[in-house]
């Protein structure tokens, strides 16, 4: 079973619509790991849609909106996989891998795609590495005996909220204001915010482990 203490606190789990979706998937015997993979596919698709803005600027509005939709689909899958696992009362020996690896792939795809859209793949890679650092600190601290820590200010949901908002902004406000300059700014915020988040989680983990002595 999924340990409640190890689950990311998400208010949307308590929404009636979300619970109905999870119940429908449980009734159909959906695989939690399969849902995680579907989320990863959505994340990869979002990254490709964002990158394609640089390749096919003539359909940039459609691509930005498609990317925003796929980012949200990725987050919905991340929400539902745990709910379905609990609803079905199933636990997989590789479930933790399915929880973590697709998230890292999705984050990397989305942020690198934004980097391509901004005209700087290096900036996208930097943001992806900073995002990965937050997860590395969280999982390493948990392995060392600290509580699972999903603190922000630039946790996964915050990064993806910024990516979604950016995509909608760029779709609605074309041109320089809604183009590369905006993407650059958001990627810098994500990078710096993720580094701070990693430092904060590390400090909190160290304090928690010291308190056990």
TrEMBL record:
<feature type="transmembrane region" description="Helical">
    <location>
        <begin position="110"/>
        <end position="137"/>
    </location>
</feature>
<keyword id="KW-0812">Transmembrane</keyword>
<keyword id="KW-1133">Transmembrane helix</keyword>
<feature type="transmembrane region" description="Helical">
    <location>
        <begin position="181"/>
        <end position="199"/>
    </location>
</feature>
<dbReference type="InterPro" id="IPR043130">
    <property type="entry name" value="CDP-OH_PTrfase_TM_dom"/>
</dbReference>
<feature type="transmembrane region" description="Helical">
    <location>
        <begin position="35"/>
        <end position="56"/>
    </location>
</feature>
<keyword id="KW-0472">Membrane</keyword>
<feature type="transmembrane region" description="Helical">
    <location>
        <begin position="158"/>
        <end position="175"/>
    </location>
</feature>
<protein>
    <submittedName>
        <fullName>CDP-alcohol phosphatidyltransferase family protein</fullName>
    </submittedName>
</protein>
């Amino acid at each position: 079973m999924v340990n409640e203490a190890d689950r990311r606190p998400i208010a949307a789990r308590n929404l009636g619509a979300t619970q109905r979706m999870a119940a429908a998937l449980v009734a159909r015997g959906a695989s939690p790991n399969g849902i995680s993979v579907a989320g990863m596919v959505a994340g990869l698709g979002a990254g490709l849609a964002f990158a394609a803005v640089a390749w096919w600027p003539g359909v940039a509005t459609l691509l930005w909106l498609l990317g925003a939709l796929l980012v949200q689909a990725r987050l919905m899958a991340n929400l539902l996989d745990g709910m379905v696992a609990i609803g079905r009362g199933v636990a997989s020996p590789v479930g933790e891998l399915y929880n973590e690896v697709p998230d890292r792939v999705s984050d990397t795809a989305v942020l690198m795609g934004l980097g391509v859209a901004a005209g700087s793949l290096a900036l996208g890679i930097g943001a992806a590495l900073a995002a990965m650092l937050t997860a590395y600190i969280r999982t390493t601290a948990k392995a060392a005996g600290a509580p699972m820590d999903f603190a922000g200010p630039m946790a996964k949901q915050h990064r993806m909220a910024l990516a979604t908002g950016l995509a909608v902004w760029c779709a609605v406000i074309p041109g320089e204001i809604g183009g590369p300059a905006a993407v650059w700014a958001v990627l810098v915020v994500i990078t710096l915010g993720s580094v701070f988040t990693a430092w904060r989680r590390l400090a909190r983990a160290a304090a928690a482990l010291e308190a056990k002595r």
